[in-house]
Amino acid sequence: MRLPKGEAASGLLLVSPPLVYAILLLAVPLGSIVLLSLWTQNFLTFDTTLTLANYAEAFTDPLYRTLMLRSLAISGSVTLATVLFAFPIAYFVSFHVAPERKALWIFLITIPFWTSYLLRVFAWKVILGFNGVLNTSLLGLGIIDEPLTFILYNANAVVITLAHAYAPFTILPIYVALEKIDRSLLEASRDLGENAFVTFLRVTLPLAMPGVVAATLIVFIPTVGDYVTPVLVGGPDGRMIANMIQIQFLQLNDAPMGSALAISAMTIVAAISLLFLFLMRGFLKERA
Amino acid sequence: MKQGTGLRIYAVAYLIFLYLPVALLPIFAFNDGTVIAFPLQGFTTKWFVELLSIEALHGAVRNSLFVAITTAILSTIFGIFAARASSRYRFPLKGGILGLIMVPLVLPEIIVGVALLVMVVSLMGLSLSLWTVVLGHTLICTPFAVAILSASFNGLDRSLEEAAIDLGETAMGAFFKVTLPLVTPGIVSALLISFTISLDEFIIAFFLTGSEPTLPVYLWGQLRFPQRIPVVMALGTILVILSLVLLTVAEFFRRRGVRRTGAKDTGGFL
Asked: ipTM higher than 0.90?
C-alpha cells in the first residue's frame, strides 16, 4: 500500500496530459474570447482598450435581442417536445422490455443519432419542402389540394428537425434513472392501496426526475447554439443566434462582436440552466 | 398486458419517426431523377458511379480520414490517462479536473469552434489546416473516450493487478501485461466512437478548416446545388452504412469487454 501522498502525486501525474490539453485548448481559448469580447474591431486591427460596448450592443440592438429570444424559445420548445415524447419510450424499455432485450432497444434508439447530422437535417428539408416528400405524398393521395407551406423555412421546421436530432439524448438519461428505481417501492405503493396511476405520479415520476432534469439540460444547452438546422430549414424567420455569431466571425470580420454574442449566449444559457437546477433541487437530493 | 401493448405501439411508431429521414437517403440514392419527390422515377446506380469521378470529393474523404484517425488515436490516449487516473487514484481537485476534461460534452460546438478560431488565428497568428481541426475534434472526442474507458477500468478487479505485482512484475509490467489486455475492448470501442464522431462533425471543422475541406464541410458546400442532391444522397447512403458497421463493431467490442470483466451490461455508449 502506497502512502496517500504518493498516490495523489501518481494520480495527478497520470491525469496531467488530458488536463494540460483541456487547459490549453478549452480554458485558454474560452479566456481569449472573453478578452476579445472586451476589445473592439477597428477595421483590420483590434482596439485593445477594454470596454463593455459590445455587450451593451448585444443586449440592446433589436436584431440581436430578437435572435437571442428566438433561440431560447426554439430551444425551449424542442426541449419540452423531446422530453415529453421520450419519457414513454424510456419507460417502455425500462419496465416492459425483457432484461436481455434492453441493450438491443437502446442500440436501436441510438443508431440514427450516429449517422451524419448534416444529412439528417438535410433529409428533413427534403421531407418538409414545397415539392418535398410530405407534400408530394399528401397531394398524390388527395389529402390536400395545394402544398403546405407552414412546415418549411420557419421556426416550426427548426423545432421538428431539432426535436428529431436530439431524441436519443433525452431517452438515455431518463432510461438510466428509471432503471435505478427499486421495483419493491412500486409494489409497496400498490400493497398500501394506491392504484397504478397514483403510484406512477407519486413514486415513479419523482424518482425519475434526476433523469428528466439531465435530459432537459442535455437538449437545451446545445440546441441554443445550433447552426446547421436554422440555415437548412429555418428560412429568414428561423435564424438563430449561432448564425449571427458565424456571420460576425466569418463574414463581417468583427470577431469582438461575435465573441460578445457567444459569451452572452453562453452566460444566458448557463443562468437559465442553474435556475432550472435550483427549482428542481427538491428532486435531486439523494434519497435513502 | 394492456398498458404494455399501447406503449409498444407507441415505441414502434417512435422508432419509425427516428429512422424516417435516414431511410430517405437510400430511397433517393437509387432513384432515377434529379427531383427529390414521390413518385419514384425508376432504379439507377448512376449516382454512385458519378461519385467515383468527383476529384474534390476524394480529397475531402482523404482529409476526413486523416482527421478522424488522428483524432481517434489522440482522444483514446487522453481517455486512457484520464480514465485510469479516475478509477485507480485519489488526488486533490479530482472532481474539478475531471469536470474540466468532460466540459466539451455540454458546450455548444459553435462556442468550441469560435474559441479555438480566435486563439489560433487572432491571437497566435497561425494559419488554419487539418491539424487545427484535429485539435478541436480531440477536445470534443476525449470526453466520450473517458466515459467509455472509465466503465472498462472501473469494471476491473484490482486484485488481478496486485497478484501480478506479488508474482514479481513491476507496476509498469503489471499494467501492460494484465490491465491493458483486459481493457482492450474498451480501447477499441473508444477508438471507433471517436473516429465516428470526428468523421461526422461539421461545425468545428467549418470554423477550423483552411483550404482543405473535410467531408462534412465539402457536403455543406454541395447542398446549395439542387442538381448535386442525388449524388449527395448516394454519398449519404454510403456514410450511413459505414457508421452502422463501425457502431456494430464498437458495440461488439464493448459487450465483449463487459463480459470479460464480469460486469453487468447496462447497455449503450452513453
From this structure: no
